[in-house]
Amino acid sequence: MANKHTIVLMQTSQNRATRTFMDYDSISQAMDGICGLYERKLKEINPATRNITYDIADLYNFIDGLADMSALVYDHTIQAFLPYDRQWIKQKVFQHLKKLAH
Fold first, then answer.
1. CATH homologous superfamily of domain 6-101?
2. N- or C-end of the chain: fewer Cβ atoms within 10 A?
3. What family does the entry list (predicted)?
4. CA angle 99, 19, 83 (to 5 degrees)
């Protein structure tokens, strides 16, 4: 998963003006970025709470609650970006968090 340029495309609401992207040097960094996005949202909702915890189901609900989320991952062998959907992102974020826990 290292050194695979990854662009996360997302739209937070039905309003097309909420479309944005986040650019990362690797899939792992992209998964960190998605977790960070969710953690910032939790802090925004719960400003008085010092330590915020969540489980994978909460993170999945956040991802599913977005109007759209997908990823483009650069494949060096074909010199092109390959598209991946929300389910792939959820699978990768789970694997990423599992690796961090060990």
1. Enhancer of rudimentary (3.30.2260.10)
2. C
3. Belongs to the E(R) family.
4. 50
